[in-house]
Design goal:
Radius of gyration: 18 Å
Helix content: 10-25%
Number of helices: 4
Number of strands: 11
Structural class: alpha+beta
Shape: elongated
Order of helices and strands: EEEHEEEEHEEEEHH
Largest sheet: 5 strands, mixed
Distance between the termini: 38 Å
Strand content: 35-45%
Length: 187
């Protein structure tokens, strides 16, 4: 594959749509539609070398017997979906500051500890260059409603048995579904 160009097609408040043009190995020209949180991408280097956009929180309670999952209404699918707490990293924030803020905003809980931080991953690699950093740790406290009226979130602690039942009957975000499947199976 040979990159040729990238052109912004539409600028939104949070998401921008681009057409990336490239040449395939059999010399055909292909236009790839994609979205990005970046407002101005004009080169391959700018497409590739973007900062981390968001933090994803994979958290357990202090006993390690429960996992934290949000049940959140997502307009893009018109329904509730189970997902880990997550959010954008604000300008000037570290991923740890963002993790603490997002956890408090979405659930009312406090981040007790971070045990691991995974290398950057992509939210939807098929059509976006949005990058996340997953933080694995422990949280505690009392649940509170989301501080944003733009979000309909019901946070909860779930046991492995409860997660197995949800996996058989409910929609999940893919990363949450994959992690929860492995966690609930004890692998």
């Amino acid at each position: 594959m040979k990159f040729i160009s990238i052109e912004k097609v539409n600028e939104g408040k949070f998401i921008n749509r681009y057409n990336a043009t490239y040449e395939t190995s059999d010399s055909k020209i292909k236009v790839y539609e994609m979205i990005s949180r970046r407002k101005n991408i004009s080169t391959l280097e700018e497409l590739v070398n973007t900062p981390t956009d968001a933090v994803v929180l994979i958290l357990h309670d202090e006993s390690g017997e429960h996992i934290l999952i949000n049940r959140e209404f997502r307009m893009a699918v018109g329904d509730y979906v189970y997902n880990f707490p997550a959010g954008l990293i604000d300008e000037g924030e570290t991923y740890e500051e963002s993790a603490r803020r997002e956890l408090m905003e979405e659930t009312g809980l406090t981040l007790v500890s971070i045990e691991d931080v995974m290398y950057e991953s992509y939210s939807a690699v098929g059509f976006s260059n949005e990058k996340n950093i997953c933080v694995v740790g422990t949280a505690s406290g009392t649940f509170a409603p989301s501080t944003s009226t733009f979000e309909e979130i019901e946070a909860g602690w779930y046991t492995k048995e409860e997660v197995r039942r949800l996996l058989a009957t409910s929609h999940f975000a893919a990363r949450t579904q994959a992690y929860c499947y492995m966690w609930a199976r004890g692998r």
